[in-house]
């Protein structure tokens, strides 16, 4: 029996979203195809969106919002960028999948190797999770060792070997001997025994661990900025320190740039922080809304990704449609030596500073952290800084959900959860940011 209609946010007409969610719940667990798209992430149900244009998005009931989620980050050019749409439309007339090499795949690989500092060779796949999963396998095969170090608060995809240290599961045990509590049913203990969890932003703990256990550790995998507990920046020298420790102890350094890649700078976090990881992974902004990912790395590792050695396969890997879209996206971002990043950084910084001003002016218990074109997040907390996963548990998620809903009523779309963060795109304008900040100030006054 259908339940009575409940508005997503009081005073906002979301009847069609409600109806579609009711239908979806009967045929899809949770009423969605991803945990990040269903209840209770969206409470009491997810909104349904029908179209986007530039920096704006429209839901099924016709409500229009300025979009600061951008499909969880991929749409760096905004929605329906004309160059991207034309490239995809032209390829659709030729075919979508052949499961063999195509010319645009070669062009894209050449462009990635030109842009990305560590990219001596590259392989393409379909999602960020696939890329990080394969990178871990490559590191294990290359080193002959089995364990990996993963940092608390980092998200590298929803597959067994990284299903710890995120999703609201609090750290248990001393810093160098965390209990690997899985975030999902169905994860074998034997798999989790290959994972060493460590707190982020503490180089001494990493060094002590490597001194004792480097003989069994194949890789350290990390995001350059933790972007799944808002936006948590590395301490000065932290990333370079990790890289140096990996070289010293013969451990593969994997930089997960699924979110930061082609966003913090044209060359991603590698360019921004002056890093040269052994392997790096990309997705989101690479396809600008199309499902593609990449693994880049040093030739001595990557040249072993061939039949009979390191396995990496997939029918849809580098299909003509997605590589054509990615080629168009990177070409657009590369114009005039990446001049568009000046705009992205300006807009991102405006949003971050504007939200912090709104917090200060309304005397809200909160703070904002961000990194220019990488986006930012507002945390409802007494802390002055969020440095790691443990700090994140000081935040008030209930208040943030209220904040999100009140912004929706004002035509501003922020994510409902503080563990995500706010993205900007090339289509965002100063007017968009002014509207968002003004709306946030109103809501913060209301919530005070």
Distance between the termini: 39 Å
Share of residues in helices: 25-40%
Helix/strand order: HEEEHHEHEHEHEHEHEEHHHEEHHEH
Q: What would you report as the Rg, rounded to the nearest angstrom?
A: 22 Å
Main sheet specs: 7 strands, mixed
Number of helices: 14
Structural class: alpha/beta
Overall mean confidence score, pLDDT? 96
Q: Give the number of domains.
A: 2
What does this molecule look like?
The chain folds into 2 domains: 15-79 and 340-447, Aspartate Aminotransferase, domain 1 (Alpha-Beta Complex), CATH 3.90.1150; 82-336, Aspartate Aminotransferase, domain 2, CATH 3.40.640.10. Helices cover 37% and strands 13% of the residues. It is built from 14 helices and 13 strands. The strands form 3 sheets. Strands 4-10-9-8-7-5-6 form a 7-stranded mixed β-sheet, with helices on both faces. A 4-stranded mixed β-sheet has the order 1-2-3-13. Strands 11-12 form a two-stranded antiparallel ribbon. α6 (203-213) runs parallel beside α7 (238-248) and α13 packs across α14. The mean pLDDT is 96.
Quick rundown:
The chain is α/β, with parallel strands linked by helices and 448 residues long. The protein is 37% helix and 13% strand.
List keywords for this structure.
14 helices; Aspartate Aminotransferase, domain 2; four-stranded mixed β-sheet; alpha/beta; 448 residues; seven-stranded mixed β-sheet; Aspartate Aminotransferase, domain 1
SSE layout:
Blueprint: H1 15-27, E1 49-53, E2 56-59, E3 64-67, H2 82-92, H3 103-115, E4 121-125, H4 128-143, E5 147-151, H5 189-192, E6 195-198, H6 203-213, E7 217-222, H7 238-248, E8 252-257, H8 268-273, E9 279-282, E10 293-297, H9 299-302, H10 320-338, H11 340-361, E11 367-370, E12 376-379, H12 389-392, H13 397-408, E13 412-413, H14 430-447
Parallel strand pairs: 3-13, 5-6, 5-7, 7-8, 8-9
Antiparallel strand pairs: 1-2, 2-3, 4-10, 9-10, 11-12
Helix pairs in contact: 2-10, 3-10, 6-7, 11-14, 13-14
């Amino acid at each position: 029996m259908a339940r009575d209609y409940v508005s997503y946010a009081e005073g906002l007409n979301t009847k069609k979203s409600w109806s579609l969610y009711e239908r979806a719940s009967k045929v899809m667990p949770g009423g969605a195809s991803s945990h990040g798209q269903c209840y209770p992430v969206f409470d009491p149900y997810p909104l349904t969106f029908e179209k986007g244009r530039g920096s704006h998005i429209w839901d099924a009931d016709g409500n229009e919002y300025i979009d600061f989620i951008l499909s969880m980050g991929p749409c760096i050019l905004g929605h329906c960028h004309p160059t991207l749409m034309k490239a995809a439309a032209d390829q659709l007339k030729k075919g979508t999948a052949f499961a063999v090499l195509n010319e645009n795949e070669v062009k894209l690989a050449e462009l990635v190797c030109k842009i990305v500092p560590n990219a001596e060779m590259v392989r393409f796949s379909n999602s960020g999770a696939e890329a990080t999963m394969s990178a871990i396998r490559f590191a294990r095969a290359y080193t002959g060792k089995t364990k990996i170090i993963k940092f608390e608060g980092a998200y590298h995809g929803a597959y067994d070997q990284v299903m710890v240290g995120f999703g609201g599961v609090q750290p248990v045990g001393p810093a160098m001997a965390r209990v690997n509590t899985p975030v999902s049913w169905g994860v074998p203990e034997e798999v989790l025994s290959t994972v060493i969890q460590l707190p982020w932003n503490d180089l001494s703990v990493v060094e002590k661990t490597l001194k004792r256990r480097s003989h069994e550790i194949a890789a350290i995998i990390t995001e350059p900025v933790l972007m799944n507990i808002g936006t948590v920046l590395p301490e000065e020298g932290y990333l370079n320190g990790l890289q140096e420790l990996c070289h010293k102890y013969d451990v593969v350094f994997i930089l997960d740039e699924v979110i930061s890649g082609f966003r913090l700078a044209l060359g991603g976090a590698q360019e921004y922080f002056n890093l040269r990881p052994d392997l790096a992974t990309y997705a989101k902004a690479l396809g600008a809304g199309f499902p593609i990912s990449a693994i880049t790395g040093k030739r001595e590792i990557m040249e072993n990704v061939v039949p009979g050695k390191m396995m990496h396969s997939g029918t849809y890997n580098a299909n003509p449609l997605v590589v054509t879209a990615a080629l168009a996206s990177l070409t657009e971002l590369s114009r005039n030596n990446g001049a568009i990043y000046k705009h992205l950084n300006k807009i991102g910084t405006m949003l971050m500073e504007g939200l912090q001003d709104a917090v200060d002016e309304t005397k809200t218990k909160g703070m904002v952290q961000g990194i220019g074109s990488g986006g930012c997040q507002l945390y409802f907390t007494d802390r002055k800084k969020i440095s790691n996963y443990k700090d994140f548990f000081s935040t008030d998620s209930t208040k943030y959900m209220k904040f999100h809903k009140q912004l929706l009523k004002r035509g501003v779309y922020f994510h409902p959860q503080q563990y995500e963060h706010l993205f900007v795109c090339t289509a965002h304008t100063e007017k968009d940011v002014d509207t968002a900040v003004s709306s946030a100030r109103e809501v913060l006054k209301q919530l005070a």
